[in-house]
Amino acid sequence: MLLVGSICINDYVLIAEMLEALEAFMRSLSLGIRPALTCWLIAVAIWDRRRAIIPNWLTLPVMLAAGGVRLYQGHLHVLAVWVLLYMIWRVNIVGGGDAKLLMGLFALFPTYEFALLFSILVLAVSVPMIIARHWGKRPVDLAAAVADRIGQDRLLPTREELETKGRQYAWTFCLPGVVYLWWLW
Q1: What residue segments make up the domains of the chain, in order of their start?
Q2: What is the tens place of the pLDDT at every residue in 55-104?
Q3: Residue-wise DSSP of 78-128
């Protein structure tokens, strides 16, 4: 029996076998996690579409669990993303439920690949919707409306405008999550 430090080679083999078994177990868990997370994302999208609000009980558990695990793993950039999303919520660009959904998504998938896929898909879906919403309006009128908001020092929406004129677009945030979950994760 060869001793390295105070652990023998047999111990290293046993530890390696345990790690392989743990890895196999985690792979089998991912088969159940993917459908569960997909169902969660679909539920969030449907809830937002029907009720125009995403409740805390639907977002906070995933956000806090995934965030806690990622912070424990040393993914400190998750905190920076959360601060950025908090600021985006505070200036009324997205609602609180959307911000918590995004915090959960970026904690679940704290990778550059997810951030890139998210950006591409949200733009690919949102730009045509924005064009359709403003179709038929003259560019001069749109520019005048933007200039008017700037002139009144109201470039960003108010909380009231977000609540009354905001759109239910959580599905555009959920879509990249589902795609990433099944394609790249």
Answers
A1: 35-183
A2: 999 999 999 999 999 999 999 999 999 999 999 999 999 999 999 999 99
A3: HHHHHHHHHHHHHTTSS-HHHHHHHHHHHHH--SHHHHHHHHHHHHHHHHH
